[in-house]
Design a protein that fits this description.
six-stranded mixed beta sheet; 54% helix; 456 residues; alpha+beta; flat; Serine Threonine Protein Phosphatase 5, Tetratricopeptide repeat; four-stranded antiparallel beta sheet; 12 helices; 13% strand; single chain
Length: 456
C-alpha cells in the first residue's frame, strides 16, 4: 500500500508512515483501502484507533512508573540500611580504637592489642589503628622486666589503690586489685592484703544474702572462712546460708528433710530471711500431703506445729478437721489395740510411780508407743499443768550426743519431733521450766509418746 499523504510505499502493517508520519489505515477484510481519509467511516476508524493507542500508551507508562518506584524504594532501603550499618560499625571501631590507645598508654599491651584488633576488623582501612596495633605488638615483644625499684613502685601503687577501694567498700574493686597485686608479688604485705580480702568476701557475701543470691553468697563466705577459720561471725553466716540453701533444695521434693533443715535454721536464727514463713508453710504442705493419704493423726500434728509458728485461721480449720477425723479412727484392730509393746526392758511410767520432784517441777514420763503407717520415727507428747491442762509456748528440747533440736508446745500443750533419723536414745527436757528429763529410745515405725506433767 502507499501512504495517502506522500505516496511512499508502505510494507507490512504500520500505523504511521515512516517518511511523513501520516497515520495509516490498514486494509479492510475485502482488501480495499479508502484513499479518502475524510469519510465518516474513516473518521470513526481514526478516532477509535487513536483512543485505543492512547489508552495502551497510558497503561504502559503507568506500569513502568510503578516498577521504577518499587525499584527506587528498594534501592533506597538498601542504601540507607547499608549506610546505617556502616555508621554503627564505624562508631564501634572508634570506640575500640580509643580503648586500645588508652591501654597502650597505660602499658597494658595485651589489652591494647585485643581492642585494636577489633577496631581493624571493623574498619580495615583505618591506617592509624593498623599502626598502633603494630606498635603494641612490638612493645609487647620487647617489654623489659621491671627493675627492683620500678617493681616496688608498682607494688606500692597497687597497694595504695587497694587501700582506697577497701576504705570505700568497693569490694569488687578490692578483689581485682588484690588479684593484680598478688600476681605481681604474692608475699607483698600479704597479711594486710588478706585482711582486706577477708572483709571483701564477708561483706559481699552478706550483701548477696540480702539479694537472695544464696549460692554466690555461700561461695564468698567460704572464701572468707578460709582466710580466717576461727571467725565465729563468718562461721555463723556461712552455716545459715548453707542451711537455707539445703532447705530450698528439699522444697517440694522431701518435706520431712526440708522441715528438719528449716527447724535447725529456725533454732539458730528464727528471723533469718523468710525462714519463719518457710517453716510454717512446710508443715502445712506436709500436713496437706498426709491428709490426702488420710493419715489424719500425723496431719493434725503438722498443722499444730505450723500454728505454733504462725497463727492462721485456715490452718486451724485444717487442724480441727484432721483432729476430729483422727479421733474417729478405731483404736483396736482384729489383732488387738494399735498401741504396740514398748522396747525390751521398757515399761510405761504410771503416775503413781513417777519420780516426783519438788512442787512445780514438770516430770517427764513415757506414756506409750503407737504404730505408724510407715517407717518413720517420731517423739511426741504434751506439757500439762497440775490440772492436766496443756501449757502453751513451752520449749521442749531433744538431745542425742552433740545433736539437739527444739519444739514449742501449741495451744493444747502438744509438741512433736517428727522424722528423727537415728534409732538411738534421746533425752527430753524443758528449757524454760524446771523439769525432770527423761530418756527414751527412738524406734523405726513408732511414735514414742512422752508427757511432762507438773507435780503438786
Amino acid at each position: 500500500m502507499k501512504c495517502p499523504q506522500c505516496g511512499n510505499d508502505i510494507r507490512g502493517k504500520l500505523l504511521f508512515c515512516p517518511r511523513c508520519g501520516h497515520k495509516l489505515v490498514q486494509p479492510s477484510a475485502g482488501g480495499e483501502v479508502s484513499a479518502n481519509s475524510g469519510t465518516v467511516g474513516n473518521a470513526r476508524a481514526d478516532g477509535a484507533g487513536s483512543s485505543g493507542c492512547l489508552l495502551s500508551l497510558t497503561v504502559l507508562v503507568a506500569a513502568a512508573a510503578a516498577v521504577l518506584a518499587i525499584v527506587a524504594v528498594g534501592l533506597a532501603g538498601v542504601y540507607f540500611g547499608t549506610r546505617d550499618r556502616a555508621n554503627t560499625e564505624r562508631q564501634a571501631a572508634e570506640q575500640h580504637y580509643t580503648k586500645g590507645l588508652a591501654h597502650l598508654a597505660a602499658g597494658e599491651f595485651e589489652l591494647a592489642i585485643a581492642e585494636l584488633e577489633v577496631a581493624v576488623q571493623l574498619s580495615p582501612e583505618n591506617g592509624q589503628a593498623l599502626a598502633r596495633l603494630a606498635e603494641a605488638r612490638e612493645k609487647l615483644e620487647v617489654r623489659p622486666s621491671p627493675t627492683p625499684v620500678l617493681l616496688q613502685e608498682i607494688l606500692a601503687a597497687y597497694l595504695g589503690e587497694l587501700r582506697a577501694a577497701h576504705e570505700a567498700g568497693e569490694w569488687q574493686r578490692v578483689f581485682e586489685l588484690a588479684d593484680r597485686l598478688l600476681a605481681t608479688d604474692a608475699s607483698y604485705h600479704r597479711s594486710e592484703v588478706d585482711e582486706m580480702l577477708f572483709d571483701g568476701f564477708y561483706n559481699s557475701g552478706l550483701e548477696l544474702v540480702e539479694q537472695d543470691r544464696m549460692r554466690e553468697a555461700g561461695r564468698l563466705l567460704s572464701r572468707a572462712l578460709a582466710l580466717r577459720p576461727d571467725s565465729a561471725e563468718v562461721q555463723r553466716a556461712e552455716r545459715l546460708a548453707t542451711l537455707y540453701l539445703t532447705a530450698m533444695a528439699y522444697w517440694n521434693a522431701d518435706w520431712a528433710k526440708g522441715i528438719e533443715t528449716l527447724e535447725s535454721l529456725y533454732d539458730l536464727a528464727p528471723e533469718y530471711k523468710d525462714v519463719r514463713q518457710r517453716l510454717h508453710d512446710a508443715y502445712v504442705n506436709d500436713g496437706d500431703l498426709l491428709a490426702k493419704g488420710e493419715d489424719w493423726c500425723e496431719a493434725e500434728q503438722r498443722y499444730a506445729r505450723a500454728l505454733a509458728i504462725i497463727q492462721s485461721g485456715a490452718v486451724d480449720g485444717k487442724r480441727e478437721d484432721a483432729g476430729s477425723r483422727c479421733a474417729a479412727l478405731p483404736t483396736e484392730t482384729a489383732e488387738g489395740p494399735t498401741s504396740t509393746p514398748l522396747a525390751e526392758g521398757e515399761t510405761p511410767t504410771p503416775e503413781s510411780e513417777s519420780p516426783l520432784g519438788p512442787s512445780g517441777v514438770f516430770v517427764g514420763r513415757l506414756v506409750e508407743r503407737t504404730e505408724t503407717h510407715g517407717s518413720r520415727m517420731f517423739v511426741r507428747g504434751k506439757v500439762l499443768d497440775k490440772e492436766g491442762e496443756g501449757v502453751q509456748d513451752v520449749q521442749v528440747q531433744i538431745k542425742a550426743w552433740d545433736w539437739s533440736a527444739m519444739a514449742v508446745s501449741d495451744g493444747y500443750g502438744q509438741y512433736s519431733f517428727d522424722g528423727l533419723s537415728n534409732a538411738v536414745t534421746y533425752t527430753l527436757s524443758l528449757v524454760q521450766l524446771p523439769s525432770r528429763p527423761v530418756d527414751v529410745a527412738g524406734i523405726w515405725g513408732r511414735i514414742t509418746w512422752v508427757n511432762f506433767e507438773e507435780t503438786e
